[in-house]
Structures are given as C-alpha cells and as structure tokens.
C-alpha cells in the first residue's frame, strides 16, 4: 500500500463514505474473472479491500488483463516491465486506463491512478473493471474468458439502412407533416410597427383632449369675468359649444381606438 498518512476530521468522514461503496462480493467476482481472463500463474489475493488493492496496484495484472482482450500481436501495451519503482508502476496503471478507454470504457467509468495507487477509491476501480468486463461480454469477439453471467451485456443500438427511394419518400412525408403555407395570409395579424403607431395616435388624442379641456376652462372664466357685450359673449359661448362637441368626439374616438387595440 502507498505510504500516506491517516485522514482526520472531514477528510476521514469523506474517505469512510467512499470506502462504504466498496463491494466485497463484487471483489470476488472480479478476482475470478481476472484469473480466468489472464490465465497463467496469477495467484489469487486474500479477501479484503487492502489485499485487492495491493494485488492490482503495481499495474502488471491490469496490463495483462487489457492485453488478453485483443488478438495475439495486437495488444495495446507492448511491454509490461516488472519493477518496484513507484513512478513506473503508476505509469503502467495509466497505460491500462488509456487502453481501457480506447477499448470502449466511457470516461465517467474510468478511475484515477491515485484511486488505486493510494487506495483512495477502490469502488471506482471496481466500477472500471465491471465496465470493461461488460464490454468484453457484449463484443463477443472470442477473446472473453470466464462465466458470461458475471457481467451484464450493454445495450447496443440497432442501425437501419434505407434505400435512396425510401429516403426520398421520407422527406416528402416530413414536409406534409410540417404543414403547408398554401392559402395563408397575414389577415388579422398586427405587426409591431402598426401597434406602435396606434399607441402614439392614442397618446396624441389624450393630449389633445387635455388641451381642449384646458381651453374650455380658460374661456369659461373669461365669460364669467370679462365685461363684454352680449354679442361677444354669444360668440364665445358658440365656440365653447363647438370645442365641447369636439372634445366629446375625441373621447369617443379614443375609446374606439382602445377597443380596436384590445382585439
């Protein structure tokens, strides 16, 4: 096991939760598969997470495992040196991870080198090996060894082939499904510009109405306050009546415009 100090406090709590994800039963299944897949004189480790980590941490067994899934002469890892040097062992782990991803294991299922080397997340190591075994069973290319019930087959997409005539018919069908604009018009539709102009017109009517009201008030005071003969007063009263009528008409037009705008 890598030489690292103990964890304390929150780090220890996090590490304990990670370790709880480790599956002892899955460990035995993975050991059975690796021994059967690699063959040769691989010794089985004793049960337990620390022993499983120690069994894999130098990278040799992992490299042999990924090579066994390829035909002879096409192995992804050409040399697997036996070494006690830490950086060389970590390099072999890294080579295995690259080869596993090239084999088809998704990035999210790939563990980090320190997960195995330092034992930080052996559950992630199990997840990678399970994904690799499932891929090997699914490919069914004659290189998988062991019980096929150890892993689930991955779902594979079904690719259909269409002739050019079928593709043309499909394009016409899609066009009909999307509908047609034949006979369409913009009747009943109000564009932004039209609505904008209507708002300005309504605003102008309101302003005019206020101005008329101001005129009515002013001329009313003139009638009451100014001393003028009856003919002048009569003329002013006629103008006031006309202005009042005009203001009433403007109010009606404003209401009509508002009703029209609300439609």
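^ Assign residues to that structure.
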């Amino acid at each position: 096991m890598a030489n690292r100090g103990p964890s304390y406090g929150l780090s220890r709590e996090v590490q304990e939760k990670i370790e709880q994800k480790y599956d002892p039963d899955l460990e035995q299944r993975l050991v059975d598969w690796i021994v059967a897949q690699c063959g040769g004189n691989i010794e089985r480790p004793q049960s337990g997470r620390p022993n499983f980590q120690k069994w894999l941490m130098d990278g040799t067994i992992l490299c042999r495992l990924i090579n066994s899934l390829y035909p002879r002469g096409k192995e992804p890892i050409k040399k697997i040196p036996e070494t006690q040097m830490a950086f060389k062992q970590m390099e072999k782990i890294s080579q295995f991870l690259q080869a596993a991803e090239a084999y088809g294991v998704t990035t999210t299922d790939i563990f980090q080198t320190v997960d195995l080397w330092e034992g930080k997340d052996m559950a992630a190591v199990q997840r990678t090996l399970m994904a690799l075994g499932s891929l090997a069973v699914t490919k069914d290319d004659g290189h998988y060894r062991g019980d096929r019930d150890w892993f689930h087959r991955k779902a594979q997409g079904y690719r259909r082939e269409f002739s050019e005539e079928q593709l043309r018919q499909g394009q016409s069908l899609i066009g009909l499904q999307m509908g047609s604009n034949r006979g369409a018009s913009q009747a009943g539709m109000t564009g932004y510009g039209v609505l904008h102009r209507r708002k300005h017109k309504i605003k102008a009517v309101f302003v005019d109405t206020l101005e008329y009201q101001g005129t009515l008030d002013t001329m009313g005071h003139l009638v009451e306050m100014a001393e003028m003969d009856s003919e002048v007063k009569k003329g002013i009263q006629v103008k006031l009546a006309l202005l009042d009528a005009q203001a009433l008409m403007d109010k009606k037009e404003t209401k009509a415009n508002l009703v029209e705008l609300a439609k």
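The two ends are 79 Å apart (CA to CA).
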